[in-house]
Design brief:
With 107 residues, chain A is mainly β. Chain A has no helices and nine strands. In chain A, a hairpin with a 6-residue loop joins strand 3 and strand 4. Chain B is mainly β and 120 residues long. Classes of the chains: A mainly beta (107), B mainly beta (120).
């Protein structure tokens, strides 16, 4: 098993920068993926392999991964960014792990 | 554009078997490079990987659920199925059908999800 830890919630003022952390033992050696999930909706991939944005995801979204922490950074936060964000790593086809999710609130 | 659609009963009695189907459109399971997976989310909780199946027949299950879960593909219907045996209230969740590619192993396609409640 592999534990991924995330803060339950993060709040940020409109237009400021949000940093959502995902902690794991030597997570810097793994590829980390991030999903955005809005209420009643399926997760949507917003970052893959640490720092790659899928087509259609705003450039305001960026990612990094080093040591024991992966970070999803959202610059110039907008109202539509309010959502739950979950990190994910793959260890094997039987071992895919998700963090508990961080609720981003835009003030 | 690949689309996934889950279907199945929304209510399952305790100790029974939960059975769900995922219909895939926009891609052929037979020729796809994707693994077809199931992920669930209990109310107020995080995402949990259940398992996945590849067209070739290989199946991969989370150790936590391996003793109770079975996944399969029906290429004639382009569908993926999930069975979870001996369910309890702890299995109440939104069940998502999802797909990932070998290599990067991120989920690039998701179904809308189906809420399954375990209750008598």
């Amino acid at each position: 098993s592999y534990e991924l830890s995330q803060a339950r919630s993060v709040s940020v003022a409109l237009g400021q920068t949000a940093r959502i952390l995902c902690g794991g033992d030597n997570i810097g050696t793994k590829n980390v993926h991030w999903y955005q999930q809005k209420p009643g909706r399926a997760p949507m991939l917003v970052m893959y392999s640490d720092s790659n944005r899928p087509s259609g995801v705003p450039e305001r979204f960026s990612g990094s991964n080093s040591g024991n922490t992966a970070t999803l950074t959202i610059s110039r936060v907008q109202d539509e960014d309010e959502a739950d964000y979950s990190c994910q790593v793959w260890a094997s086809p039987t071992a895919i792990f998700f963090g508990g999710g961080t609720q981003l609130t835009v003030l | 554009q690949v689309q996934l659609q889950e279907s199945g009963p929304g209510l399952v009695p305790p100790s029974e078997t939960l059975s769900l189907t995922c219909t895939v459109s926009g891609d052929s399971i037979r020729s796809s490079d994707h693994y077809w997976a199931w992920v669930r989310q209990a109310p107020g909780k995080g995402l949990e990987y259940i398992g996945s199946v590849y067209f070739g027949g290989n199946t991969y299950y989370s150790p936590a659920l391996k003793s109770r879960v079975s996944a399969s593909v029906d290429t004639s219907k382009n569908q993926v199925s999930l069975e979870l045996k001996s369910v309890t209230a702890a299995d109440t969740a939104v069940y998502y059908c999802a797909a990932f590619l070998s290599g990067p192993y991120y989920f690039d396609y998701w179904g809308q999800g189906i809420l399954v409640s375990v209750s008598s």
